[in-house]
Amino acid sequence: MRLIISILLIGAAIGAAAFGILGFQGKLSRKPPLELFPDMDRQAKLRPMEPNHFYANGVSSQLPPAGTVARGEPIQTTTGAVYGFEDSPVNTGLVTGTTNFVELNPLPVAAEMIQRGHERFDIYCAPCHGKLGDGNGITKKIGVMPAVANLHDKRIVVMTDGEIFSTVTHGKGLMGAVGPLMPTADRWATIAYLRALQLSWLGSTNDLPAEQKAALK
Ligand code: HEC
Residue ranges per domain, the chain? Predict the structure, then answer.
């Protein structure tokens, strides 16, 4: 008998609890909801532009602390200089604040950089433009890219470094964007190498030292 009474009591208690929690579902109430697991729905925080007493000047939107690094892709050179903030020629290929392409590579060009550019060129550009840059890459040979630019065309030789950077970064005509594949510094290194490659095609026997020129004859 006692057992039966206790089972009934426990049953009634569970029923009441279940009804208490679930029974009012769907009812409208102006009171805050019952939160079994409040997660982080409510927390102490400062909303932007809201007055507060946390900071001395009473404003929640503060200037960035000293030493904050701007968005972008900072590039540190061997000399310790840091380049590459959002609106700088290194990131855009443009003279800051204008729509004019920069004439020259904004990163200091050194032998290591040209070597790196050589490697990158052979990986990222040669499949279409050919290792010589003359437009005879494998994609032309197998017929998937019928008209690839010859990078020794006078038009491209006289193009500013900034415009080539823009072509590489965003693509142009039939050429897709290479920017997403190559870090910024590598794109500039590739351009430095491309300049060396173009220069090598412009050489003549007059550029040879006297002894070598004599040996030619
Ligand atoms: C998938 C093939 C492909 C790859 C990879 C490629 N290019 Fe091109 N590139 C082209 C084609 C095709 C053109 C001609 C685009 C047109 O005129 O429609 C071109 C044009 C150019 C031009 C001339 C743009 C102009 O203003 O006429 C330059 C400069 C150039 N590419 C540089 C590069 C460099 C540097 C790389 C490597 C980082 C590269 N390209 C990688 C296919 C490619």
Answer: 102-201
List phi, psi (to 5°) of 59: -115, 135
- Residues across the chain: 217
26: its two tokens: 């769907």
**Distance from Cα 192 to the centre of ligand 1, integer Å:** 16
Q: Which CATH class is domain 102-201?
A: mainly alpha
For the chain, 217 residues long, give each residue's pLDDT as a single digit of tens.
Answer: 888 999 999 999 998 888 777 777 777 888 877 788 888 888 888 887 778 778 888 888 777 777 776 666 667 766 666 666 667 888 889 998 889 999 999 999 999 999 999 999 999 999 999 999 999 999 988 989 888 999 999 999 999 999 999 999 999 999 999 998 999 999 999 999 999 999 999 988 888 888 888 888 7
Distance 156 CA to ligand 1 centre (A): 10
For the entire predicted model, the pTM comes to 0.69
Residue whose CA is closest, atom 38 of ligand 1? 125
